[in-house]
Design a protein that fits this description.
By secondary structure, the chain is mainly alpha-helical. It is about 65% helix and about 5% strand.
Length: about 80
Amino acid sequence: MFNRIALLRADGNVSRKALAEAVGVNPQTIGYLERGDYKPSLELAMKIAAFFGVPVELVFSFTPFESVTDALKRVQEAS
């Protein structure tokens, strides 16, 4: 499973500890999730998405996310 937790945390200037406290897990769990060493329960995935105010499919995916660089290139080419 792939995720954008680290990207969302960096964008929101949120520490692992702050996110962990908000969703009720250990900060190490956030690290495991970010590295792909742990798959979240549906409840945890939804709590993380809600914390960032985005749909769960924006945070988690079964397929790799497009890189930010590639997405920006695609947008620039389309305009």
